[in-house]
Amino acid sequence: MPQIKEYRLRSEVQGPVQGRRATAEGFGGATAQGLQEVGKTISGIGDQIQKRKEQQEVLDITEKMSQAHVDWSNTIADRTQKGELDVEKTGQEFDAYMENVATYATTGASQDYFRRAKAGAKSHFTEMMYANSAQLAKTKAIENYSKSQDNYSSSLINDPSAYTFLKETNAQSIDTLVKSGGLPAEAAEKLKFRSQEDLAKSAIRGWIRLNPDIAKKELEEGKWDKEIGGDLKNQMYAEVNREYRARESEQARAIRDAKQMKAENDMKIENGFLEKMSANKLTSREVLDSTLDPRDKEHYLNAIKMNATRSVRADPSIVNDLYRRIHLPDGDPNKIVSDKELDAYFGKGLDTAKLSFLRKEIQGRGTQQGKIESDMRNQVMKTARGRLTKSQIGIPDPAGEEQMARFQAAFEEEYAEQRKAGKTANELLNPESKSYLGNMINNFQRTPQEIISDMRRMNSNEKKEGLYSPSTAPVPEVEMVEVISPEGKAGRIPKDKLEDAVKRGFKTK
Fold it and tell me: 490 phi and psi, to 5 degrees?
């Protein structure tokens, strides 16, 4: 709201007071006439002093009534929001407040202005209090009164319906100043226009916040054309459109949050189902009574039947491949990003335990910290795969996938126990740490002799069962050499691999 500048009357001395100079000859019969003229001059000065006093008091009362509107708008709004609004008590407090303001009005003009201003304010606030008491939930402006500022404009942001009252009150105060001589008429008209424009702008913004449809309709119908010009009207249209977009964004965010909340709830339900299914305790009724989507319910009903009709076993090669795909770089088309993608593998390479394990691996990557921990765990698994699927001399281990699965199970069990005992992820997954769980890999790594023995046995079984074909090349007979690994372990390797082994630190006995 524009600030009302104080206009104070100033005695302008136009020139020396013209009067007759007293002389010795002038005394006598002229004395009475001179005294009469002096009396008139004194009376005129008294009138000017009284008028200036009236003007100053009107200015003071105007300022205090403006502040009273802000104070009591805030007070009523605050009490309304807290449910503590007592109309009678608040009215008495308002009267006491006005009695204090009345002490500043000592002249007839200021007292008359104060009585009219007080009556209008009391009527407005009484009506507001009764309306608030009866229809507290119907207007957002009442709820927002506690946020109102110390001027008319901020009050209108929360209660645009008060525009007419505030405009009339503001115009009345300006007219009173003009009548008392405290404000030139030309300046008053300019000030009135500017203040009405500001009040109108605040009222429109109030309607935009309450209901942008109402604000837009009033702009289109020209309700505010007398108060705001073309540029300002376009600005108000822009603010209406921003409000529409903001509400659409809020609605979209609410929908997104609801979907995320449901997804998190479904995840907890499914994790619980898998635990129960592992112990054969999940019932069809539990599935049907859950809040899962129909497709997910059907999946778990089929899983229950599958568990009941045949043994569901995990295929180590499939488990390991799915684990690898979970940790592929972002953007890789083969990367598994949702635990729902794993459902298709249940009974086809995954049992309930491995399905639960892989689901948690995906879910654990949902936060930045979880992703860091998951990547560190994956690095241990990559190291294990490199050492368990091949021998120390580079020969593929036929049982490598099974050894990898065994290590993975042992690793997960030990990792969970150590975390429960208070160890940090960095302590367990950092190769420099004394508690590094990657050291467990040695317990699952087979010797070259074990690998070659299995390969020969597999080849022999294929021949006996008639599975041998030219395309299936048997493991050739090779001459073995006893060696000692860089770690000091004794073993045997094919002679044709000796040269390469020596380069890597192996020694012959």
Answer: -85, 145
What is the 8-class DSSP label of residue 106?
Answer: -
Classify burial at 455, counting beta carbons within 10 Å of its beta carbon; exposed 0-12, middle 13-18, buried 19 or more: middle
Backbone angles phi, psi at 483, to 5 degrees: -140, 170
β-strand partners of 484: 490, 507
Residue 481's SS3 state is: strand
CA 496/CA 474 separation, integer angstroms: 17
Give per-residue pLDDT as tens, 152-210. Answer: 667 787 788 888 887 787 777 777 767 766 667 777 777 777 778 888 888 888 888 88
Query: What is this structure's pTM?
Result: 0.39
Question: Cβ distance 384 to 391 under 8 Å?
Answer: no
CA 193 – CA 227 distance, rounded (Å): 7
Using a 10 angstrom Cβ sphere, with 0-12 exposed, 13-18 middle and 19 or more buried, the burial of residue 505 is: exposed
Residue for token pair 């009267």: 95
Which position has the token pair 């600005």? 235
> What pLDDT score was predicted for residue 311?
67
- Give 287-324 as a 3 state SS string: HHHCCCCHHHHHHHHHHHHHHHHCCCCECHHHHHHHHH
For residue 484, what is the enclosing H or E element?
A: strand 480-484
Do residues 158 and 166 make contact, with C-beta atoms less than 8 angstroms apart?
no
Cβ–Cβ < 8 Å for 169, 140: no
Q: What is the DSSP string of 111-173?
A: HHHHHHHHHHHHHHHHHHHHHHHH-GGG-HHHHTGGG--SSHHHHHHH-GGGHHHHHHHHHHH
Determine phi and psi for 8, rounding to 5 degrees.
-110, 135
As a whole number of angstroms, the distance between CA 431 and CA 429 comes to 6
Q: Which residues contact 12 (CB under 8 A, 6 or more apart)?
A: none
Q: What are the start-end ranges of the H helices in 389-468?
A: 400-420, 425-429, 448-464
Q: Look up residue 130 and give its two tokens.
A: 């009764």
Q: How far apart are CA 493 and CA 509, in angstroms?
A: 12
Which of 230-234, 308-312, 346-350 is the least confident region? 308-312
Between CA 302 and CA 306 the distance in angstroms is 6
C-alpha gyration radius of the chain: 46
Q: How many CA atoms lie within 13 A of 380 on its CB side?
A: 27
- C-beta pairs of 181-190 under 8 Å, 24+ apart in sequence: 181/9, 181/51, 181/55, 182/7, 182/8, 182/9, 182/55, 182/56, 182/58, 182/59, 183/7, 184/7, 187/7
Please state, rounded to an integer, the average pLDDT across all residues of the chain: 76
CA distance 245 to 27: 90
**Residue (of 387, 381, 372) closest to 437 by Cα position:** 381
Tokens of 298: 């059907």
